[in-house]
Amino acid sequence: MPPSTPTVALPPSALPEGEPVPANGALPESVHLALANAAAPRQFGAYVHIPFCSVRCGYCDFNTYTATELRGVTHDSYPDALGQEIALARRVLDDAHHRAPLSTVFFGGGTPTLLPASALTGVHARLRQTFGIIDGAEITVEANPDTVDRASLQTLVDGGVTRVSFGMQSAVPHVLATLDRTHDPRRVPEVVAAAKAVGLEVSVDLIYGTPGESLDDWRTSLEAALALEPTHISAYALIIEPGTAIARRIRRGELAAVDDDLQADMYELADGMLSAAGYQWYELSNWSLGGAHPSRHNLAYWHDTDWWGFGPGAHSHIAGVRFWNVKHPAAYAERLRAGSSPAHGREVLDAEQQLAERVLLRTRLREGLATSELEHPERVAELIADGLVDARAALQGRVVLSLRGRLLADVVARTLS
């Protein structure tokens, strides 16, 4: 089995219910106590969800909408709704005495670059004015290669953006067609060069295991990505989510089912090629050039720090409490216009849940997890025996996955939880 894609940072197709959130969005008393007793300020980031796409890709299960699916909100009005939630978040955090400045901001989607670059930098400016941002903060924008040019990328840089993440997915036309990706793969080198020219760090995202994709196809995509010389490459195994177009095509027999063994081979090929080219894995699906350019925003998720997710369906985490917004952009905007929190529900994590999440998230990382944090450290021995955990690291007090363990990371997490 290939490593699974983490869901903590991604908007799900169906929201959990959880407990209700007060109309003013106030955080529970447990947050106030946790912040009052914290030994040091908690790291704080912002995720900004842009729910617009020009077309819906066949594999996509994210909270995104095309123009024909939207009502009650437009590209022009959406930044105002985000501004209203930013103001609400400031009031809620002030009440809880949470005043940490932002250290990362991530514009995800959807396709953030369907909005004008000036609109994205306007939202960033509002975040900066409202919360403050540390010097050297990482500010990332996801982009479809067909939705940017040098001028728009320069506008992003001028507005404080430091990093762009291009949804390359594949360099092979028939694979892109199966995924319903509309961009021309020949355009990717042009926009990567333009991004570098204006001073942006560049990451490219790849997907492997698409029905009909061969190991040689995947090798072609890896070679194309490496030729771009980005500072960061993500490679995610395709997961077939129920209700997506690609799931329906597989069910009808139009496409072959995903081959787990082939996906595992593809992961091992990616790790070998990327490592040979000087990229170091720091999380199961992410490699950084020389180990020096990880996504600091995503690392914040895996380290279970605090973040506020702005936008419909976005999830937040503040001092052990998770909450999530209503899913549809129209409902989101309407709540904010009425002066209410857009939050749909929340959950307060108990000590057992927090430990389980810490094990799940930290074992995905190259640095691993300290065995002293485990409730059952004796279980590490059986993982070493099965070749899933590095024995030398375990002797030094850390659970670090072997390559085989990275392919079976969920098994490791279940064993240790």
From TrEMBL:
Keyword Phosphoprotein: no
Keywords carried by this UniProt record: 4Fe-4S, Chaperone, Cytoplasm, Heme, Iron, Iron-sulfur, Metal-binding, S-adenosyl-L-methionine
One Gene Ontology biological process: porphyrin-containing compound biosynthetic process
Residue ranges of domain Radical SAM core in the record: 38-280
Recorded GO CC terms: cytoplasm
PROSITE patterns: RADICAL_SAM
Residue ranges, annotated region (Disordered): 1-23
Gene3D superfamilies: Aldolase class I
SUPFAM superfamilies reported in the protein's UniProt record: Radical SAM enzymes
Subcellular location: Cytoplasm
SMART domains recorded: Elp3
GO MF annotation, one: coproporphyrinogen oxidase activity
Family as reported in the entry's similarity comment: Belongs to the anaerobic coproporphyrinogen-III oxidase family. HemW subfamily.
Protein's job: Probably acts as a heme chaperone, transferring heme to an unknown acceptor. Binds one molecule of heme per monomer, possibly covalently. Binds 1 [4Fe-4S] cluster. The cluster is coordinated with 3 cysteines and an exchangeable S-adenosyl-L-methionine.
Matching NCBIfam families: hemN_rel
Protein name listed in UniProt: Heme chaperone HemW
Source organism: Gulosibacter macacae
